[in-house]
Amino acid sequence: METIKYITIFYIITCLPYAITTNTQRATKFDLLIYTQQWPATTCKEWKKNDPSHTCSMPKNVDSWTIHGIWPTKLGSMGPAFCNRTWLFDPEKIRPIENQLSQVWINIFGGTSLYSLWAHEWNKHGTCAAVLEPLNSELKYFSFGIDLLQNFSMTNILQSENIVPSNTKEYSVVEINNAIKQKLGVDPAIECKKENGESYLAEIRICFTKDFKITNCDGIMTRKVVDYHSVLTNCNLSKKILYPHYKDKSFYVQIYKLISWLQWFTL
Ligand SMILES: *[C@@H]1O[C@H](CO)[C@@H](O)[C@H](O)[C@H]1NC(C)=O
Ligand SMILES: *[C@@H]1O[C@H](CO)[C@@H](O)[C@H](O)[C@H]1NC(C)=O
Ligand SMILES: *[C@@H]1O[C@H](CO)[C@@H](O)[C@H](O)[C@H]1NC(C)=O
Asked: Membrane-crossing residues (predicted)?
């Protein structure tokens, strides 16, 4: 029950703007598809912040970007969402790609159902995206997410511009934005999470037209302008941000135990 409560709270916080607009606006039309990748180390940090007993399910390569979702969106507003309340996520439909999905579209929230992220993404966003023929089934929607990661993985894109995870070196959001723009030729949107006065790189969104051509994310919600650079972000532009490595606390706990044991042993 506790876990369900936390998931609910988490989704309410992260999806509140969507919830507000979808209640008043039932239209299912949209302009763009937002393809959102998440940085697992930051998602994990956020999940543990809610409750220190939380654990994370990390991808095998902990320093790789994973998929959050493909979100149909209207310019200047959020949503549509939940376009077909009777077309609910069915795990049987994604069986053929389940192993792959459980790495690249992984549910980071340890202890919660393997399917909870996929069910949420399909029920909320997939049912809306399904008006487009290439996305008109669960299998197609999730397969398309995997295909997009092969072409647009932020792991590769950022690395090729020398932006790599570090627990010490910080980056400016403009620098990250420009690296992506340099590589893809379009404006992305960059999301941060804040903790103890630090900002952490959390999500990068890139946008596609309804005929699947990459395009600027300009016009989607969250916009700030700095100097002559136009950067779509919720990050604080006057402060550098961390693009952290995943830190497994239990690893440090184990080292600590080992050292304690060695000290005792050598006394
Ligand atoms: C909603 O989904 C169900 C199940 O796939 C389908 O039969 C129905 O036609 C859909 N409704 C709309 C309005 O698309
Ligand atoms: C990925 O790139 C390949 C090769 O450039 C292209 O044929 C394919 O359409 C792309 N797929 C997506 C989903 O963008
Ligand atoms: C952004 O960062 C600057 C510099 O650390 C700080 O003075 C400012 O209050 C921050 N703004 C917000 C909205 O957090």
From this structure: none
